[in-house]
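Figure S4 source data
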Amino acid sequence: LEPPRRPRRPRRRWEVLPGKNRFCCDGRVIAARQSGVLPLTLALILLTSGLFFTLDCPFLVQHLSVCIPAVGGALLLFVLLTLLRTSFSDPGILPRATPDEAAQVEKQMDAPGSASGRPPPRTLEVVVHQQVVKLKYCFTCRMFRPPRTSHCSLCDNCVERFDHHCPWVGNCVGKRNYRFFYAFIVYLSLLTAFILGCAAAHLALPSSEFSFTPSSTAVELLVCFFSLWSILGLTGFHTYLLASNRTTNEDIKGSWSGRRGEGVANPYSHQNVVLNCCTTLCGPMPPSLIDRRGFLPQDE
């Protein structure tokens, strides 16, 4: 008699999801396979903050205020939380078309396939707020991309309201994590400016103690000074995008700026800065469209 077969371990859908993503904690955490320079981002933040708490805080608590470490700690906490939420969350990945759905879409295409077997590039036109928007066909996901959706070549996924793939956070920035990305760069700007001001105060105030700290504090001040300009520039750029309800991808392509001489108005703008910002940052969190934790049928 053959020994009884052990029942197959039920598999979850994240184990077979296409795309270049990594999953942790049984599918609860998602990350891009190419983490970019995320470890460097974390190292720079923690190293600069460590120098601040080690060298500046003891001196400033005695000479200025005991609230300085609390403010710095709160800003650092917000920076780390928003960074991790941006890096390890679903940015708005769209599930790929099933074979039946892809066959139906390709069947509706009028022109025959090319010699390579792939259908020729196709577009669909839809009306968004009384304006015609073209939808492009994605050959990888085998579907027409919804408005503002783009395919990330690094993550190999179509992402809703695709903004850009950020190497500093190691993930795509899209519909579901843009608010956390924007909060991250705002808090990082505040933290960098705060540490810069505290380091300058440490150097400016007379000190008879901590004789070894001024040189280290000067290095810390220089790092924060040169970093702050790029961070503030990035924050200002995304504030402009928020105010006009655009994405980085749309701005680079000049989709609504009239760079191509068409003068097309942005159909997604509410013509109100406050409303544009609130729509992107304060609306309800869109649900994830990929079923990571669901179980696969036994025959798959």
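Figure S5 source data
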Amino acid sequence: MTSEPIVTAPRHQRDWDQYSRLAAESFGGDHRDLTCHRSRGPAAVAVVDDEVIGGAVALRAHQFFGGSAVPTGCVADVCVRPEWRGRGVARRVIDTLMDRTRADGGVLSTLWTPATGVYRRWGWEVAGLGRRWSVPARGLRSLPAAPGDVVPGFTEPARELQRDLARAWDGPLRRPSWWWDWKYSDSEHRCYTLVVGGEPQGLLGVRVRPVEPWGQDLVVSDFWARDTASGRALLRFLGGFGSMAHTVHFDTGTLANLPALVWELPQHELREQGWYPWMLRLLDIPAALESRGWPRTVTGRLDLAITGPAAQRLVLEVADGRAVTSPGGTGAVALSPGQLAAWYAGTLDPPALTRSLGPLDDGIVELMGMLTRRTEVWLPDVF
């Protein structure tokens, strides 16, 4: 007789090996990455008769919101054996994983998924969409010249530049130190830094993808530029591959929602392809609100009523770029956990707030928009 699943942290290497094989069967490809994640954040597996039948990891990171880095768990490699799907295993794995993420200090959780309905029921909400962009390589070769030299490799100052640039958006990860080796240690990827006056001003992550019957395409996984001139220098560098490369593909999340590339091309041949959304959940609502950055020029108070199984009322007071929460209040603004997450991310502008939350005092709608709509939302990190 088959036992009921037990959900636990991976107990030993055998659990990690079985989980890795299950992920490979579920998603295709070689998921050897999973064992290397054992020190990178919490994990949970479902076990039946000493066999792993489901699992997930939450990579430990920080996510920028309002210029502050908020502790988050990046959920990845959620999988369940086919014969156990639809029986509540994934929900139990995720619940255990989120408990472990909270205990690990995470106050947010983010993930990429096409299964938005499932994760919405579990407390996440869509914060943004992944997009891919493609442009003929020849269109980049004719851009005006820009100063700087593109050299191989990512130096630590270049990585610091990436962190500084990421801080200006709502959503990017403050990448952990292991991120770069995880993404760029294989022979397929090439790393480049743009140097101007001895200082890094941009960086690129690129791999080559063969194209039949001949030639290749370029796939860009990181594209960061200090300013317009730096971006132009990097684009011209990519155009230099045009003797062999037909197309330059900017992979999921690599460019922002409306990339500056549209103002650089001499002819608009930029193609957009949608991908999965990314979703956000607040695991510890007061701590998440107090950890976020807020506009220094905005002062105000919101009386929030969070609905659902973990219903609570709290007062959010913002001043001088910081927030303080306290229990209680009038509950004038009622939000589900998902609506709160979407507002927190900066996804809901004032008209969307009114549509989502129903009639609200105009002053409340204006304040909510001013608090979280000052920065564009973008997650450039795929995990």
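The domain at 131-275 is CATH 3.40.630.30 (Aminopeptidase). The chain has a mean pLDDT of 94.
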